[in-house]
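Blinded run. Sample ID left blank on purpose so nobody reads anything into the name before looking at the predicted structure. Input follows.
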Amino acid sequence: MYLNRDIITLEEAQGLLQSVNLQTKTKKISTAEAHFYVLAENIYATFPIPAFRRSGYDGYGILNEDDHSFPREFEIIDNIGAGSVLEKKMSSGQAVRIMTGAKVPDEVGKVIMLEVTEKCSDDKVLIKESMKHSNISSIGEEFLKGDLLLSSGTRLNAGAISLLNAFGIAEVLVYQKPKVGILATGSELLKAGEAYVEGKIYNSNGPLLEALVRENGGLVITLDNVKDELHDTLAILNGLTSRCDLVLTTGGVSVGDFDFMAEAAKAADQFLFNKLSMRPGSPTTAFVHKGTPVIALSGNPGACFTGFYLFVEPTLQRFVGGKSRLKQVKLPLAHDYDKPNNFDKYLRATVNFDHDSGLIVSQIGSDKSSALGNLHSTTAFFKVPHDSSIHKGEEVEVWLLPYK
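Blinded prediction complete.
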C-alpha cells in the first residue's frame, strides 16, 4: 500500500501529540488504594507533628530544677509508655520512666537516656550524668498546622502514603488513571502457551506495552490481537476507541501490503503524523479516531519500546495533569559510535559511574529495531544526530527513563 508520508522531526511529532486535547478526570479514593495514583489536590497539615512534646529516647524524665549534681538518685513515680500520659504531679527529686515516642509531661525539662542510668530498686534510679540535649521533640517540630504536606501532581509512593496516614487522612482526591486499550496486529502472532507454529512468532510487544503502561500510571483495560485483515482491524479499533482514553497499537504501520494501521490513520478524524526522521521507529503513526488518540507503534520490539517512552509516556502523564518523567541531560559517551545514519538515532543505553569521568552513558546490546534482548536492561536513550559520528568522551543528549 502506498501512502503519502511527510517526514517530520521527533520534536514536531511530540508537539502534534501535545496539541491533542485530553480530558483529565478525578475521583475520591481511600488512602489505602492510592499507591501510584497522582494527587489532584493539595494536602495540608490539620494539626502539628509532633502534636505533643515527644520523647526521643527510652529513659527518665526529670525537672529542670533537678538538672545538676550528678550522679544522684531519683524516686521513680510512674512509667509512661507510648500512648499514655502522666496523671500525677512531679516534685523535685522525682523522675518518670518514659519510652521513646511517649508524651513528655509539661513539667519535665529533660529526658535522660537509659544508657546513663542504673536501676537501684523498683522505685529508685541512679542517674549518672546529664545530657547535652533535652531529648524532647517540641510540638510542631516537623510540621505546623496548615503546612503544605503534598502538592497536587504528586505521585503517591510509599512515603506519601505513610505521611497521609500520619495525619489520619482516609481519603484523597486523585486523577483517574487513563484507560488504555492495546492492540497487537499481525497474522503471525501466537499467544504465550500456544503450540509453536513454523513461520509464526509469539506476541511479545503486546505484553511489553501492557507492562509499560502499568509502570507509567495507566490502566490497561484490554489487550487484543488481530490478524492482518482490514475489516477486523477497523472493527476492533472502533470498539477500543469507544471504551478507552488512549489506544496503543503495535505493528502494521509500515508500507507493506498488510500494514492496515497506516490505512486506519488515513481515514481518521484527525491525522497527526506517520513518518519521522528517526531510528528506530520512523513509521510511528498517530491520529485521533472518534475523539480518542491512537498511537501506532512499530512491530519491531526495540522500536516499540523506544516509541513508548518518547510518545506514549508523555501522553499518559498529561492525563493526570503532569509532564513526561523522562529526564533529559548531557553525558559523555563511553565509546565510539560511527555507524552511518541518515536519520537521528535514539539508541538504547545504560548510565554508569566511571571513577575518572563521573556519569557516562553506554550503548547496551544491539541497536537493531528488531532486538529485544536489551530492553530489560535499558535505563536511558542517547541521540546520535544524522550523518554524525560520536567519539568516546564526547557529550551526547541522554534521556533517563523513569521507574528503571
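Unblinding after everyone has recorded impressions. DSSP finds six helices and 27 strands in the chain.
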